[in-house]
Amino acid sequence: MGEIVVGLDIGTTKVCTIVGEVRESDVYVLGVGIEPSSGVRKGIVTDVGALSAAISSSVHKAEKSSGYEIGRAFVSIAGGHVESLNSTGAVGIANSRGVQINDLERAMDAARAITLPHGRQVLHVIPRNYSLDGQTGLRSPLGMLGFRLEVEAHIITAASANVQNLAKCVEDAGVYVDRFILNPLASGDVILTPDEREAGVMVVDIGGGTTDLAMFIDGSVWHTAVIAVGGQHITNDTAAGLHLSSDLAESVKLKYGHADPKAVSALEAFPIQPFGEELPSKVQRTDLAHIINARVAEIFELILKEAKRSGYDGLLKAGIVLTGGSSQLPGIKTIASEVLNLPVRVAQPENVTGMSDALKNPAYSTSVGLLKLGLIMDLEDDRRSAIRKKRDDAGAGERVAKIIKGVFGRLLPGEEGE
Ligand SMILES: Nc1ncnc2c1ncn2[C@@H]1O[C@H](COP(=O)(O)OP(=O)(O)OP(=O)(O)O)[C@@H](O)[C@H]1O
Ligand SMILES: [Mg+2]
Fold first, then answer.
1. Do 24 and 150 belong together in one domain?
2. What's the 366 CA to ligand 1 centre distance in angstroms?
3. Domain range for 365
4. For residue 31, is it within any domain?
5. What does the alpha-carbon distance between residue 35 and residue 33 come to, in Å, rounded to a whole number?
6. Any residues with Cβ below 6 Å from ligand 1, and which?
7. What's the pLDDT tens digit per position in 381-396?
């Protein structure tokens, strides 16, 4: 029997609440609530009332279908305001006792101690790798002998105002934010294989308002980024190019859209009813494909730029794993591999059981991932606070010992000055 937890994925196009039991090999879904989103643009809250109402209905649906009352949840976060940086922290190791968990924690504390610009806060601090006395690239130096331990950590930060607005929307809907989790970390947790993480891979979650990416190298998070472009931009381009309303452009995109004009027959055409025209007209499918291709290629060029910035060269042996609603666009794989020159696959959550039919789709990778990663992060935090408590207790013990010695020093003549 696993633990029952709740994931609340607040996307630009949909809000998805899942109540599920996280087991060793799968997530058993007890209830789901999916609602159209409102009041979010490019991952940023623009209308607290509208978003809070959408969250509320999604949560109620999930409560009804699961029979559980939802008090707290792991909540997704993205948006162009999310940034990441790398930081190192170094500590000394006491003579010849080998590196202990406590030392790893102290090194992480040192890496965490960065000065953030005003108005920003830390979302995640993730160890990338360790080095001991100059020996670099260590996954876990536990038990190894050395004097100077260094950790390189990946720190993800967000604009506090945006985080607070999102928290307010969730809390107004009666749910406590257990923790915020960056979208692509959650997606990565359900769609990547351990082999891909080891070999080097990049998760690209192309949603409605944002494209979220996370690179995993040697099993750990190497780099993360959020690009404020997604499927809604493809719809907007379609609307502008073919003179259609947004709703019509969205359905035309879903029905006839293709990212690769080379793969579409020049003979194919479909009917549309443009603004201001009396009669329907016909559009060549290749024309639509050219409109879509321009935006999709731009998204992958931005991804390439971001990946280069992180120093990825030659490190992504397992290539790219695409997910998110927009990864279902036909031809997207071809354009991704043309621009990035890497192997590409499209993925969706697989190890979900129970009431999971709707969730077996790339749009729900983040939603399912929140439950798994949220629980892992909670357990990790419990372990850390246990270590901290032990460390503090040990510190308190030392102080007590000193005071007692001082008292005895005063009480016992002759001991002073020894
Ligand atoms: N078959 C399809 N072809 C092309 N695009 C699709 C298809 N199905 C869904 N989409 C697009 O996927 C997008 C929604 O994806 P998703 O549900 O992952 O976004 P979200 O999580 O709400 O948004 P975000 O994470 O960016 O805030 C929409 O723009 C939609 O048009
Ligand atoms: Mg999303």
1. no
2. 12
3. 1-81+158-191+348-418
4. yes
5. 7
6. 11-14, 37, 43, 78, 183, 207-210, 230-232, 235, 250, 253-254, 257, 324-326, 328-329, 363
7. 888 788 778 777 776 6
